[in-house]
Structures are given as C-alpha cells and as structure tokens.
Amino acid sequence: MKIDGKHYRTIWPVADGAVVVEVIDQTKLPHKFETKRLATLDEAAHAIKAMIVRGAPLIGATAAYGMAIALAADPSDVAMNAAYDKLAATRPTAINLRWALDRVRSAVAPLAPGARAKVAWVLAAGICDEDVSICEAIGEQGLKLIEAAFAKKGGKGAVNILTHCNAGWLATVDWGTAIAPIYKAFDKGIPVHVWVDETRPRNQGASLTAFELGRHGVPHHIVADNSGGHLMQHGLVDLCIVGTDRVTARGDVCNKIGTYLKALAAHDNGVPFYVALPSPTIDWTVVDGVKEIPIEERSSLEVTRIAGRLADGSVVEVDIAAPGSPARNDAFDVTPARLVTALITERGVCPATRDGLLGLFPEAKTRAAGE
Ligand code: MRU
DSSP letters along 107-153, please? Predict the structure, then answer.
C-alpha cells in the first residue's frame, strides 16, 4: 500500500543484493515512519519479539527471512536448528511463525549446507509474494460481504464495519486480512466507515489501523475498546471483521485480547461477526482453541504505562497506574466458533466449522484433528 504516494510492503530485501531485509518499524508508528535493517538472526528475532514487526502473517514472513539470514552466516545443521528454535521462541500464539519456519527448514534440510541459504532466501521471498496474493484474494472474497451489506441497506449510507487490533496491510506483507475487503470496497466506490477499536494495551487500532486507513482515505473513527457493544445496540455497526493469529480445525478463533467480547456483543445484537484469515493461519493440529492455543502473556508494564507524543513532537511513556499496582497482560483471547458468522479465506467464505474449513481446504483432511 502507499505512504505519501510511495508503494511499500512491510518487509523487503535491501537493494544492494546483501542478505539483509528492511522493515517498517511499527513501534514508531504513527508518530514516525522509520525503517530498520535486519542483517542478523538476532536482529530478525528481536524485531519479532519487540514487535517492530507484528501481525501473524508478517511474523511468519520475517521468520522465513530470519532463517535465510541465519543460513547465510552458517548453513550447518546445528546452526539451522538453533535459528529455528530462536525464531520459534519469539512469540507463541501466531501459528504463521511455526508454519513459515517449518516450510523453510523442510525445504532446505535435505540440501547440502552450501545450497541452503540461497534456497531459503528465494523461498522467503516466495512466502511474501504468496501472502500478498492470498491477502488480495481475501479482499475479493470479503468484498462480496460488504457489497451484500450495502445492498441490505438499500444502497443508502455507509456500511459501518467494526474491527479490532490491526489486521491491515501493516500486519501482513501487503493488503491485510480483515482490512483487505474494506480497501477493496472503498476502491470500488462503496461507502464504508470503520469503527477502529483502540486495542489496549498496545493500541494497534489507534496507532496502526487508523494510520493506514487514514493514509488510504478510508473514513473511520477510533473508539475506546469498550464502545463496541454500545455501538451495536444502537444499530451503528453493520458487520464486524477481525483478523486472527490462529484458527483451530473446528473454527475457534484466537485473536487480540478483546476480540471475544466483541463477538459476544455482536451475537447478542444480531451483528454478523466475520474473521478473515490466510490459510497458513489455520492450525489443523488443534481443535479446542480455549484449551489448546498458547496465549502470550506480555509485560504488565504495557498495561500500567502508555506511550504518546508530546506537543514538542517527542514521544514519551507515562505511568497511568499508581506505582506498584500489579497488572496482568494476556495478549490474545479465543472466540469460540459458535460466535463466528463465517470465516473469510482466500478460497472463499465458509462456516466456522471443521466441515466448512475442509470444504475449502480438502487437502488438509488427513491432518485435520477432530471428527
Ligand atoms: O500482537 P499483534 O499486534 O501481533 O497482534 C496482531 C493481531 O492480533 C492481528 O489481529 C492478527 O495477527 C491478524 S493479522 C492479519
């Protein structure tokens, strides 16, 4: 997507041919647009852990490049497995991380060490290209739902869509998942308006989703996280679309903390609740999301402090709690499949059920857990 007229992906190889990638430093947005070079395994792992890059698909893409960078430095079995373990340990919830690491390792492990880095580098670039086309296809599939919602309103007024966290292009290589249908609808001239949950504690909605929607010209309002239910009660939300970090074989959805409460409110108010996902986000090995998906617990300081820009332009962190107040920071929650109206994938829209998913991805039948 474009920033000030220039097209960007969220990750790209540097121009001089070195085994180095550049990423947008998302910890600096929306106050500063800065990029960062990742030239070593440690830098790639740090970028994921510190959320310089974040969002399930982009975490996977960065991990794939991290493997290639590590193999260029040392292509031995020992180093390859150590790189895998280091990258896998960065964040526990988004399954795209393990998916990308497995894909790279299984492609290069049978090769002679000297051939590994090149193959991994090309594969990482391929994973990025694939993510872009998958996300664009999700956009096309979800567009049909927005068009239907617009028709339901008699073609009058804007379609009001609520989203949580950031599942836009910044969370992927390009386009986004939940936001891709919104870009498609907007570009097609369908009036859309987005309610952007601020997404405490890290404010991905306020700082990233609102930023990218604003740069694209999509009408939106940031709302406090607790507003969704109220907006739905007053008929101000036509549909919800969120992204996800892991979907189970039966359609349970793990996403940013607070997603579950939005799904409950949507259910209570008869508002359709859609989840957009690329197929690498499906974890076919797990069934019960609440019991089986590891939920990342992050520093309590993310809850008790907040960062922002002062009038002089400097960015500072301030405490919002009394010194010593204990806090807990679960980064994700699980929305049971029964609260999900449908899943939007690159191959189509399906019910959040095992049969629904297998109907679109029949090749997964032999490895899909559950009956
Ligand atoms: O902690 P984050 O910012 O990595 O969490 C991101 C989300 O929860 C997104 O909604 C999810 O990764 C889907 S991204 C297309």
Answer: HHTTS-HHHHHHHHHHHHHHHHHHHHHHHHHHHHHHHHHHHHHHHHT
Determine the 3-state secondary structure of 23 from DSSP.
Answer: strand
Query: Model-level pTM greater than 0.90?
Result: yes
On whether both 165 and 120 belong to a single domain, the answer is no
Burial class of residue 79 (count of CB atoms within 10 Å of its CB; 0-12, 13-18, 19+): middle
Q: Considering its fold, how many domains does the chain have in total?
A: 2
Residues 147 and 122 in one domain: no
Residues 210 and 125 in one domain: no
Residue 72 backbone phi and psi in degrees, to 5 = -70, -30
If you take atom 6 of ligand 1, which residue's CA is the nearest one?
A: 55
Q: Kindly give the number of the ligand 1 atom that is closest to the alpha carbon of 178.
A: 15
Confidence of residue 17 (pLDDT cuts 50, 70, 90): confident
Centroid of ligand 1 to alpha carbon of 76 (angstroms): 33
d(CA 110, CA 121): 16
Average pLDDT over residues 319-337: 98
Residues with CB under 6 A from ligand 1: 54-57, 94, 165, 167, 171-172, 176-177, 204, 243-245, 255-256, 331
Out of 95, 245, 262, 333, give the residue to mutate to test ligand 1, the one with the largest number of ligand atoms within 8 Å of its CB: 245
Asked whether the predicted pLDDT for residue 321 surpasses 90, the reply is yes
Residue 16: predicted pLDDT = 87
Return the closest-CA partner of residue 282 out of 99, 125, 132, 103: 99
- Taking the centre of ligand 1 as the mean of its atom positions, its distance from the CA of residue 43, in whole angstroms, is 20
Whole-number mean pLDDT of the chain? 97
Containing domain of residue 198, as a range?
A: 143-364
